[in-house]
Amino acid sequence: MVHLKSVLTFRPSAERAAPTLAERYNACRQQTEALTASLSAEDQMVQSCADASPAKWHQAHTNWFFDTFILSPHLTGYRPFDAKFRDLFNSYYNTLGAPPDKALRSTFSRPALDEVRKYRRHVDEHMRQLLKYGETSEAVLELAELGINHEQQHQELLVTDIKHAFWSNPLRPEYRSEATPTSAGPHPSPPPQKAQNYPEGLREIGADAGSFHFDNESPRHKVFVPAFRFGLRPALCGEYLAFIDDRGYERPELWLSDGWKAVQAHRWVAPLYWERNGTEWFQFTCSGLRKVEESEPVCHVSYFEADAFARWAGARLPTEFEWEIAAAPLAVEGNLLESGKFHPEASPESKADSIMPLQIFGDVWEWSASAYLPYPGFKPAAGALGEYNGKFMSGQMVLRGGSCATPRSHIRATYRNFFPPETRWQFSGIRLADDGN
Ligand SMILES: [Fe+2]
Asked: How far is the CA of 411 from the centre of ligand 1 (A)?
């Protein structure tokens, strides 16, 4: 029996009744099918960089999660589809045995895609059986909730990984030709950046026990946050172009030491997926190559680039606490996965008297200035699921807010994503802040 209380927490309620969870399970699984429907079996084998995994592997691994953590231990009489998959599709749970090297995932030509789809149907059939009856224990419902959220995380990765795969292919195929690029019409100039003042104070940070959250969002605790100003929209491509034109990538004084090393080592001159043709910049999107639009939030930048840009702009990145204070009163809405755009949308100009930050949720993950660390009192769960988040609290930075590839029901103000500071293949962008002086 896996103890999950520190992996996730949520309050029993009518909304959490098994039929509702079953419906959400079905919707989640259908979302994965929809995201892969346009991909050939060959597309689904590509692993074009060390960060990415093949689309077929994402489908098998998310299925493995339900198979391993829920059905095998909790459904009486359950027989796994193939016992060998228990090791093959393990990602990083060392407690369960030695997972295959991540770099080898593109060599898993067997099981074939059809077999993986049968594996998913096998798990679907038994998950529906498990969730159908009201006798299912609270612990099992919590595990199913975690399994759904886990699959949603992989849905975003599936999109970013196939984008990288298609960019790596000289044919530059489109993932979603129906995702209408915003360049189809005339574009306004970037709206001016405005900022909102927030007073100093002792603030509550983190998720409370009343709703689903990952263990890394808790315990909710108090943090003293000095006064700060927070940008009302993300940094835009037009502003980033000015940073490039001002020799931003050639001026060591703008960069952290490791950032400057990364610029040299990787020969960065622009965000990932940008390329210059003559005097114009183009970017590869999920809908193919198109012009960089000045009014869109810049994305596919590393933490190092976000930090250097902020320094160049006379500002800094917000801490994750500042970000959460600004986001807490706002509704979760915006350009998320369900919009089907798979690209950040042009920023609207805030109304003259508005003090509400725009594009907080969706569009681009926003790098914070905060290292990914445990909140006071954090304790990973016992057993394999304790490896879900806690063991990654080293050498990574927190990102907030979700992106155009994040499922809507997956994101919230307290959500902490995390990646190493060189990471660029996610839809990662920039929000500026300063001390208000
Ligand atoms: Fe996973």
From this structure: 17
Percent of the chain at pLDDT > 70 equals 92
pLDDT band at 191 (very low <50, low <70, confident <90, very high): confident
Q: Evaluate if residue 349 carries a pLDDT over 60.
A: yes
Show the tokens assigned to 149: 């959220």
220 CA to centre of ligand 1 in angstroms: 25
Q: In whole angstroms, what is the distance from residue 368 CA to residue 371 CA?
A: 8
**Among 359, 364, 241, 345, CA closest to 299:** 364
Half-sphere exposure at residue 247, Cβ-oriented, CA atoms within 13 angstroms: 4
**CA pair distance 29, 34, nearest whole angstrom:** 9
List the one residue out of 256, 201, 191, 192 whose CA is nearest residue 228: 201
Predicted TM-score (pTM) of this structure:
0.94
Residues with Cβ within 5 Å of ion ligand 1?
A: 91
